[in-house]
What does this fold into?
Amino acid sequence: MAKIVIVGLGAGGFAALLAARKTDRNAEIVVIDRKDYDLMHPCGIPYAVEGAIGSIDNLKHDLNMKAMRVAHYKNYIADSINLAEKTVRAHSAFSGDEEFFAYDKLIISTGSTPLVPPVEGLEGLLGKGAFTVATPEDASRLRAAARATGKALVIGAGAIGLETASALSDMGCEVVVVEMLGGVFPRALDPDMAAILQQYLEEKKISLRLGSSVQAVRGSSQVEEAVVDGEAVPCSILVVGAGVRPNSSIAADAGLNVSRFGIVTNEKMLSSDSSVYAVGDCAESFDLIRKKPCWMPLSTIAYRQGTIAGANAAGADESFKGVVGAFVSKVGEMEIAAVGLTSQAAVDAGFDPVFGKLKDLTRPDWYPNGREITIKVIADKSTRKILGAQAAGSGAAWRVNVVSAAISSGMTLEQLSDVELAYCPPVSQTYDCLSKAVDLAIRKIK
Amino acid sequence: MNAPDELKYSKDHEWVKVEGGSAVVGITDFAQQQLTDVVFVEMPEVGAAAEAGKPIAAVESVKAVSDVYAPVSGEIIEVNDALRDAPELINTDPYGEGWIFKLKMSDPSAAAALMNAEQYKEHAASESH
It folds into this structure.
């Protein structure tokens, strides 16, 4: 009867405990987590800020740990792991009491923490008008601040930055987004696709400063202004959406292999120690397209990896193949989705990309209320294999999901062209824009 | 209706810009409007023979495939490669960056027989009711 200890209760830890319990009804499962409640959903935070889910407490979620016979040590912070003795040392955040948890199998699912860029003055103003966006508490404070004041500056034009910018704008704030790289979602979208979202943001009166950076944040007791490219921009709210970094130090300190991507794992989600698994944002992933380690901090991946690790810790022998990076963000009304490689990433990886792209309506033009969607599918000219896709508009995600399946199963353009899609006029068109985009790519290389 | 004065026009809505013994050819603003968003351009091969009045290229939108006819006879000497990845140039700049092919005219005086801008505008207006 295995004793399984799970450190960190987020998407990965939760999936692991479910899978472990399902695989071995008798396994002893212990969860160590720093929160004083069970589970929360960070991806919902920007939407919670604007009131989309009602009370912000709806981000929090109770699990029936007793019914699952899981010993849950809430408010416990794991301090170190002793691989030789197979113990985790943790302490209660309440009492300070230290405890040692012995394990047969350990699953590290410690997640990630917002990256606070080394901007002069920023660290000191966190909590005084400057916010990271990682917890329901951040959401409550941001919501209160947004109602009270007018000008917000957001660092980072990725999902967190833009979803939060949109929420703040909808709440009446004047918003400026500052992004270091040249476009929105710079690692997921080609410039022509990013331009679609950029135009939408402009129409929403969200000011975008691309290729720009914040040098300093100033304020006597609260944020008052930020210096952007040498220019002082007044703001009373500053949101840090500059990415996250893996919480892998506990693993590194214990002597486990840790790369710049996080805790190194194999396809069984095992670390360099055969009794220790690592999953989610704190762990490395494997890029299925470029066939090398990568980092992909997405809850969907954390969940699937957690499921594999939990099952394996309880005696199964499952494998996690790797990731293709299927992602969607909803910024206001605009759905943006992408999977696989951008055109530049394809070139950098040594592929010879060809794309099929088109702007279309989501319904036949004789049916009312069709909305616009632009979709771009990228493939490799020599092997004809699908490398990636990007879509902006209504129905972006489901189409990108089809391409996600195509990429991970190694489909060519011709095979993807053959995929049957479901249709009725309120939903799509007889000849869907995804198929059209694929066929345009095929025509180019005939 | 936009039809620059310095160009010549065919009844099939192609424009011709005469450059010495060569002709640059594209489709008119009227034609691109009828087509709506161009998604693909089937271009001729360099070296191919173009015969006046016969289809030499095709412009496709989501709903239609439209032949482009050679307005004069000649040999294709250049095609607009930019249209491969940006077919929408035909919509945004039909007389400039949206040019489709260039040919060396077999008879340089043949272009004179094409319509001028005024005649073309009348012709297009009569077609569009």
Remarks:
- Chain B touches chain A at residues 37, 39-40, 62, 84-85 (CB under 8 Å).
- Residues 13-127 of chain B form a domain with the OB fold (Dihydrolipoamide Acetyltransferase, E2P) fold (CATH 2.40.50.100).
